Amino acid sequence: MKRVSVTLMGASTIMAIATPVSARIIFCNNYPYEVYFSIAYQQFQANGDALDWLSRGWLGVETGKCEEFDSAIAVSEFYWRGETNFYKQGRGRARDSWPSKDGKKFWNVEGDFQFYQADHTKPEAQKPTFSTYEKSFRAKDGPITETITILEGGQVTSDATGAVEQ
After folding, report:
1. Which of 44, 93, 99, 124 is the most exposed place for a label (fewest CB within 10 A)?
2. Which Pfam families does the protein's record reference (predicted)?
3. What are the tens digits of pLDDT across the range 7-46?
4. Under a CB-based contact definition with an 8 Å cutoff, are residues 6 and 59 in contact?
């Protein structure tokens, strides 16, 4: 099943931080194949009490382009994952994904999704996968502004603005 490139727009049901300012989560792709991104973030009540983790995807970013994930999200940190569709490599096929190392795991599926309790409750969806996600920087005050870029060779760069910590 191929992923469909979709730009996710609209407000989350529960904002991650009670503030009128939005986060800017931008993904750029300089990799030779289209990369699909999903994110996960913790939701909070208006009084600051933590709620469940939410995972959402996929945002397709073509080679040479940058796309904002969702302009209505207001989070101080998030986790992200990138994947390509399968492509021909030699006599077989390959698929690349980021991150390829340790991180936090969240549920996702091949098509568009939004899962609550994404860090522990298996969703009732067809073929869900418990995949590793990479942590973003963390904004000290308010929503994060971060640009994550997949480079041509598969390396990742990340640039966050404002008061951030890793």
Report:
1. 124
2. DUF1036
3. 333 333 333 334 446 789 999 999 999 999 999 999 988 7
4. yes
